[in-house]
Amino acid sequence: MMAEDIIIKPVITEKSNDALQEGKYTFQVNPKATKIEIARAVEKLFDVKVLKVNTVSVKGKEKRVGRYTGKTSDWKKAVVTIDTNPTEKSYLAKGGKVTKVSKKYKDSIDEFMGA
After folding, report:
1. CA–CA distance from 38 to each of 5, 52, 107 (Å)?
2. Which of 14, 50, 61, 99 is surrounded by the most beta carbons within 10 Å?
3. Is the pLDDT confidence value at 102 over 80?
4. One-character DSSP codes across 4-54
């Protein structure tokens, strides 16, 4: 599955806007996507470092128009926690040399609020 097929759209609610301060972003995702696929898609699309992914399957609601009843579609929601303070990581490489990972990550998703 491509990254564009996994992330469908952001979920913008009062609760999700409050969670933005903690680096938590909420997305509607493909129901067949796994947590690992969601994390890779967010990292690829938004160039951020994902720390944690929580998912929930949301059941559709009963809707009624006149005497006819129906049901909205079931969907999957993912709350993605990103690293808001990305730092350089260093580790010991072969031969005992210290190697630094200098990949630059952003500390927020600017496209989330339409900026």
Report:
1. 10, 10, 18
2. 50
3. no
4. HHHEEEE---HHHHHHGGGTEEEEEE-TT--HHHHHHHHHHHH-B-EEEEE
| pLDDT > 60? residue 53 | yes
Residue 30 CA to residue 78 CA, distance in Å, equals 10
50 by Cβ neighbours in 10 Å (0-12 / 13-18 / 19+) ranks as buried
Q: Which two tokens stand for residue 88?
A: 């350089």
What confidence score (pLDDT) does residue 113 get?
65
Could you tell me the CA-to-CA distances from 29 to 54, 60, 64, 88 in Å, in that order? 12, 15, 26, 30
Q: Whose CA is closest to 30, among 52, 4, 62, 66?
A: 4
Q: Which domains does the chain have, with CATH numbers?
A: 3-107 (3.30.70.330)
pLDDT for residue 114: 55
Residues 6+ apart with CB under 8 A from 27: 7, 8, 9, 10, 11, 38, 42, 77, 78, 80
